[in-house]
Design goal:
The chain has 102 residues and is mainly α. Helices cover 82% and strands 0% of the residues.
Length: 102
């Protein structure tokens, strides 16, 4: 318990910044009109592509005996890939709505 309290007291400013980033992110995303969701989804897909690359780098630099790093890197790659693919599927479906019907 003391280790957790020491960590919090040492990184107090970083914790405040992360909390403020989450609150600002929720407010910004909540006020986006529905017309702009498709371009924002494409931007989010690009960001998650960077997350996938970072996770692959972490897995490559990890020691072969460090199973925690390897597992976290693998989970990050899988979840990032699912998020990118799901984002492109949602974007494609939204763009289909704007096409003229035959």
């Amino acid at each position: 318990m003391n280790a957790i309290l020491d960590f919090i007291s040492t990184h107090e400013q970083m914790i405040y910044i992360v909390i403020l980033m989450m609150l600002v992110g929720v407010e910004v995303i909540g006020r986006v009109p529905s017309v702009l969701h498709t371009p924002l989804m494409s931007g989010a897909n690009a960001i998650h592509g960077v997350v996938i690359i970072g996770a692959i780098i972490v897995m490559g630099k990890a020691d072969s005996g460090n199973y925690v790093s390897l597992l976290l890197g693998f989970v990050a790659v899988v979840l990032g890939t699912l998020n990118v693919v799901g984002g492109f599927v949602v974007t494609d479906r939204m763009l289909e709505m704007f096409k003229k019907k035959k």
